[in-house]
Write a structure and sequence with these properties.
This protein is an alpha/beta fold. It is built from twelve helices and nine strands. The structure holds S-adenosylmethionine.
């Protein structure tokens, strides 16, 4: 998904993709003692810590327009070519964006170049998405899509010095409406406004989307979904592939 993509699909993003405070706390903790942070693919400003000096990089005008007033200064640029000198920031941060980059290796090289101490990424392990009911039972095409666009954990390891990866379990009432956040709220997926805010729904065909929606609606009405997966409605959180990756530099 390039800049033009987010100029179109980013409409209304900040309504549905509200940063979740429990995920935010873990992202901020991963930044450690960094005082200056470059947030690449910053979008509408989700998860930008307010207790440090942040500069944002974002290519899409539509996403920049939704940044709240008073949020960090933003530079219109792309990860693959960051307009900053070497070692300009303590940390570089990239949240749920690397699967949109044209060249992940080039983007990660740029993050390593401009950061002095660490690189922090929030991403999704595409392998973990195979097990998610919505992909396995309703939209298997999503598995192929995510394996194609999401960098694998081994690709990240090849492009970052000794990264550590931590699973972030996603709360059932997660306020950030990325696609797999609805693992315990199947009815929400039927809402086109919810789907509009996640790029995966824009990358599979309308026929595929409709086929899965029809089946999900039927299974919710008949109780088939609840017989198979109703236990999820009682869980507080689930591993749906979200990974916090930290690489210490230097
Ligand atoms: C799913 S949004 C995430 C935004 C924000 N980090 C968040 O967590 O809400 C992905 C963002 O990556 C941006 N993006 C796409 N291609 C990019 C690139 N090559 N370099 C930097 N950002 C890019 C998009 O414009 C979009 O704002």
């Amino acid at each position: 998904m390039n800049r033009a993509g987010y100029d179109k699909i980013g409409l209304g993003y900040s309504e549905i993709r509200r940063p979740d405070p429990r995920l935010a706390a873990q992202i901020t903790a991963a930044l450690g003692d960094a005082r200056t942070v470059l947030n690449v693919g910053a979008g509408t400003g989700s998860y930008e810590p307010s207790d440090r000096q942040v500069v944002a990089v974002e290519p899409s005008a539509e996403m920049v327009a939704q940044r709240p007033s008073g949020s960090a200064p933003v530079v219109r640029a792309e990860a693959e070519s960051l307009p900053f000198q070497d070692d300009s920031f303590d940390a570089a941060l990239a949240i749920l964006t690397i699967h949109h980059w044209r060249d992940v290796a080039a983007g990660l090289a740029e993050l390593r170049r401009v950061a002095r101490d660490r690189v922090v990424l929030l991403t999704v392990d595409p392998e973990a998405l195979r097990e998610l009911w919505m992909n396995r039972d309703y939209w298997p095409e999503m598995i192929e899509l995510e394996c194609r666009r999401m960098p694998s954990m081994s690709e990240l390891e090849a492009n970052l010095p000794v990264p550590t990866s931590m699973t972030l379990a996603v709360p059932r009432d997660c306020s950030d409406g990325f696609a797999s956040a609805y693992w315990g709220r199947p009815e929400a997926i039927l809402d086109p406004v919810v789907r509009h805010a996640s790029s995966n729904w824009h990358e599979i065909s309308a026929e595929t989307t409709e086929r899965g929606l029809g089946q999900l609606q039927k299974d919710l009405e008949s109780g088939a979904w609840d017989r198979r997966y109703g236990y999820l409605r009682a869980r507080d959180s689930l591993d749906v592939g979200l990974r916090l990756v930290v690489a210490e530099l230097g």
